[in-house]
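=== Structure Prediction Worksheet ===
Name of assembly: unnamed complex
Input type: mixed (protein and possibly other molecules)
Chain count: two
Listed entries:
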Amino acid sequence: MVDLALPKGLVVSVAGTARARVLDRLRVGDAAFRQLTRAAAIVVLLLLSGVIVALAVGSLPALQTFGFGFFTTDKWNPVTEKFGALAAIYGTLVTSLIGMLIAVPVGLMIAFFLTELCPQWLRRPIGIAIELLAGIPSIIYGIWGLFLFAPFLQETLQPLLINTLGNVPGIAPLFAGPPYGIGVLTAGLILGIMVLPFVTSISRDVFEAVPAVLKEAAYGVGCTTWEVVRYVVLPYARVGVIGGVMLGLGRALGETMAVTFVIGNAHRVQASLLAPGTTISATIANEFTEAVGDLYTSSLIALGLILFVITFIVLALARYMLLRIERRIG
Amino acid sequence: MSFLDSRYRARRRNNAVAMALSVGATVFGLGWLVLILGALLWQGFSGLSLSVFTEMTPPPGASGGLLNPIFGSITLTALALLIGTPIGILAGTYMAEYGRYHRLSTVVRFINDILLSAPSIVVGLFIYEVMVAPMGHFSGLAGGVALAVIVIPVVVRTTEDMLTLVPNSLREAATSIGLPRSMSITHICYRAARAGMVTGVLLAVARISGETAPLLFTSLNNQFWSTNLNGPLASLPVVIFQFALSPYKDWQSLAWTGALIITLAVLALSITARSLIATGKQP
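=== Predicted Assembly ===
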């Protein structure tokens, strides 16, 4: 828009050279500041491309050696230098799935409570408390999960699952084996708790954006509160809720420390949810500093690249959906 | 009639069930917060003493404190802020002031949102590739840069949001008295948006002070007192990670104490940030 209030020629003719010099300096400073901010914005772009390029270059040796087989074998043997990502990819997807199975329904119900049922004075404190859950660093979830939650599950939930669902034909293999405490299920449950606040706060925001007229109309024709939420609020907020869920999924896929503590780091694809497993992020966190040899390091970086590509796609979809609902509201 | 009656009763029952479930879900959600904070206080409070803040990390079996990781964490956080905040604020300024409707801003906004939730361990790998591997050794500097990569998107986001909220009439008034654009931004817009921008920085600090994954293979860890940014540097989260997974009871209890310190610091920061927003909103 406007660079300076006075154009250069006018200044020189009206006032002396001293004033012109000051204005010149301001003009140069102005342009410099503008370019500086633009450069900073470009740095943000470079960061993302830098991440992709660095990971791609780093993972090249592994991908060249193993080819497509890297994605389809679960052999992970540092001694013979045979690496396959299947177990880690499988573990990442299964733990995230378990986490989302818990976080999505519970998060939606909390959002329902906060927007429709909760007394006005209680909304803010409960909302903040749920968001504090998101603020707790992931290593805290890890240490808590390892020392308290996993032993608790080992003694209560896991034997219960083995004795009940473990006997049901069809799903029995999912709950086979001894209760270790740590394992895929425990990691999934902790992910569920960690993702819960993200799903809750975005769902609450999109629920609140539903026009009051729609809800009032539904109440007016005699709908119950639940029917209003189920048939009016939820369909209206659908795209935003899905966006929020994907954002939570992105978190769950990339979560590192909490999972590293409780997953058990076993490179196998196993049906049982109670068995130890591994995820991409846990493998990298556990093994990267101890990795000797270029191929080992490169395989771990290739895992990082796979993780980044998966989360990039999920997050991009999430942002796209949230952008769509923002446009509709705004 | 009885059909309508039973249908009506079924709807009321469904409503009651759904309401009960939503209350239950809220109690469930809040329950975890209470459980985790309670466990932290229970396990960590007993180990909290002056020696935690004055002594170095001990070898297994000896008593000691967390002085060097606390110092390391503060150094790394300061370094990350020093690098990340200016870049973040300037980029946010470009997007809100100069290029609000420019194509570049749309792209940067999208990329920034991706970076905001990208897995932090990937950031660690990235910095390892571009700094640690070429330099040939782990360093506190690399750790600081890795954390800066996490700071930048948070600060960009809040700066842009807050500057967008500044009314245009302020900018017009500044221009009308002949202020150059850069000065109207730094002297008028920044002041109007200050509370929000500080909040962004505080949120960024809260975010990075618990980050472990990006530090594991950048700043690594150091058992001894070190102020050398060119060498490995201890940090609280990494020490907690190492100590918690060790078989030694002393180390485990120090890990709990460290966890308590981090959590209290992070919660205090995020509550301060929240109250800043709350007071900033009221005229």
